[in-house]
Design brief:
By secondary structure, this protein is α+β, with helices and mostly antiparallel strands. Helices cover 50% and strands 19% of the residues. The protein has a six-stranded mixed sheet with strand order 2-1-5-4-3-6, sandwiched between helices. The longest helix is centred in the last third of the chain and has 52 residues, at 163-214. It starts with a strand and ends with a helix.
């Protein structure tokens, strides 16, 4: 399985730790993905979505931001999103416990490269077939993956569109969708009332007719 894990500081995109696993049989250009990952980390800022998935063909970048640190994972698009974010959340907790107080002070890239050992061990446990079978039982606040924004890596990197702008568009679409559902519900309610009123008028007219003409 081809994968890339990168941890970077959000303020300047400085890489703090990384781990690479290349599958030669896949024929994928991992250096290209590494370049994209670095570009993406440099584009992130305080307004960027805290969790996001960026599609890159048959691969996907998943990232989460916490305490001014970005945790990014590149994997095959078929890999379960819930597992990907549970994996990133695990890295977040361990990395913050070990290096949280040192992140702001470092100036050298990959200052915490020794964290690669933990990355590899943790990734193996999440990629393992037993984890794939049992991922439904993972108890994590990241289970609601449907709310995580999805975008295309080319839109963000080549077109220069910021993630915060994409997030705003997604929020606007969500608001419009909610408004549409609300308006549709209102119109349906009015339609129901109109039908009830029409039936009521018919029966009242019928009663009046019977009363005055047959009694």
């Amino acid at each position: 399985m081809t994968s890339l894990t990168m941890i970077a500081r959000v303020t300047d995109g400085l890489p703090l730790a990384a781990s690479v696993q290349e599958d030669e049989k896949s024929g994928r250009d991992l250096q290209h993905y590494q370049s994209q990952a670095k570009q993406l980390c440099r584009k992130l800022n305080a307004q960027s979505p805290e969790r996001c998935t960026l599609e890159a063909g048959d691969m996907s970048f998943h990232y989460l931001i916490a305490q001014d640190v970005c945790y990014l994972f590149l994997c095959e698009a078929s890999f379960a999103k819930r597992l990907a974010f549970a994996y990133l959340d695990d890295l977040r907790g361990e990395f913050h416990d070990r290096y949280g107080r040192k992140v702001a002070a470092v100036t050298r890239p990959y200052s915490f490269i020794e964290f690669d050992t933990y990355i590899q061990k943790t990734k193996k446990s999440f990629v393992d077939s037993r984890a794939r079978r049992n991922f439904g039982s993972i108890n994590t606040e990241l289970q609601d993956v449907q709310r995580i924004m999805v975008a295309n890596i080319e839109e963000v990197l080549q077109r220069g569109e910021s993630l915060s702008a994409l997030d705003t568009k997604a929020s606007n679409l969500t608001s419009l969708s909610k408004k549409y559902r609300s308006d549709a519900k209102y119109l349906n309610t009015r339609s129901t009332y109109a039908k009830v009123a029409a039936v009521s008028v018919f029966f009242i007219t019928l009663i009046i007719y019977v009363r005055f003409w047959w009694l």
